[in-house]
Amino acid sequence: MSDADDPVDPGAAERFVRSLVAPAKPIGGYRELGTTALAARLGLPDDKLSGHWCSRCQGIWWGCTLEVECPVCGNRRG
Predict the structure, then answer these.
(1) Is 63 left (phi over 0), alpha (psi -120 to 50) or beta?
(2) Phi-psi bin for 65: left (phi > 0), alpha (psi -120 to 50), beta?
(3) Are 36 and 71 in contact (CB under 8 A)?
(4) How far apart are CA 35 and CA 46, in angstroms?
(5) Beta strand pairing status for 31-35 and 50-54?
(6) pLDDT the model gives residue 68
(7) Distance (Å, whole) CA 40 – CA 4
């Protein structure tokens, strides 16, 4: 029996070489990195803050929409 004669399982999923998957989660989830000094100085309420991801710290920090620098490590690359 050749491979061409094998019955195909309609429920079997095939892997894609480059599939879109979520990034690996750090062990224990993510860290809460806090709020930036600018957002605190402006006295912004929680509903006006934007969450930003820091890949170096593996956590989320909160600040103004246009802020790009992690308040913990200074990473500017997300």
Answers:
(1) beta
(2) alpha
(3) yes
(4) 10
(5) unpaired
(6) 92
(7) 66
pLDDT score at 78 = 80
Ranges of beta strands (E only) in 1-78 are 31-35, 50-54, 59-63
Model-level pTM greater than 0.70? no
Compute the average pLDDT of residues 63-72: 93
The first and second tokens of residue 25, run together, are: 């989660």
User: Each residue of 3-60: pLDDT tens digit?
Assistant: 556 666 766 666 655 556 555 666 677 889 999 999 999 999 999 999 999 989 989 9
CA angle 40, 33, 75 (to 5 degrees): 95
Alpha-carbon distance values, 63 to 20, 66, 75 (Å): 28, 8, 14
